[in-house]
């Protein structure tokens, strides 16, 4: 008999690279005691019932970073793990308007920072991100927004 995946492991999620006109990106940090310290991550989270992946991205960006965006560019979707049907949807958000964070009680220690894209990518290369979606989204944004150097 195989174990059925729990409801949480089958919920899709969205992760967002929110980039301003100066190339600064929204980066969050908080302590993850189970993983041994503070880590970086991008705004994002699990989809609520009835939401599309883009609606989830819009809500999570507004809640976690206090940001709304005029332009949304899908970067692709990927399996979260081999043992789940859940997918992670990645987005580039631009045309930003900043406001206050709307953190839930579970998110109250999230600290928002604005980093140059190159610093965020360097932090990803150094293993400073806890989850894989953020580094992948950053690399995809770098790939789709920089001119081909070949």
Describe what is shown at a glance.
23% of the residues lie in helices and 36% in strands. The protein has 3 helices and 7 strands; from the N terminus they run ββββαβββαα.
Explain what you see.
With 150 residues, this protein is an alpha+beta fold. The chain is 23% helix and 36% strand. The chain has helices at residues 53-65, 117-125, 133-145, and strands spanning 13-18, 24-32, 37-41, 44-46, 67-79, 87-98, 111-116. It has a 4-stranded mixed beta sheet with strand order 4-1-6-5, sandwiched between helices. The chain has a 3-stranded antiparallel beta sheet with strand order 3-2-7. Strand 2 (24-32) and strand 3 (37-41) form a beta hairpin. Helix 2 (117-125) packs across helix 3 (133-145). The protein is globular and about 35 Å long. The chain starts with 12 loop residues before the first strand and ends in a 5-residue tail after the last helix. 27% of the residues are buried.
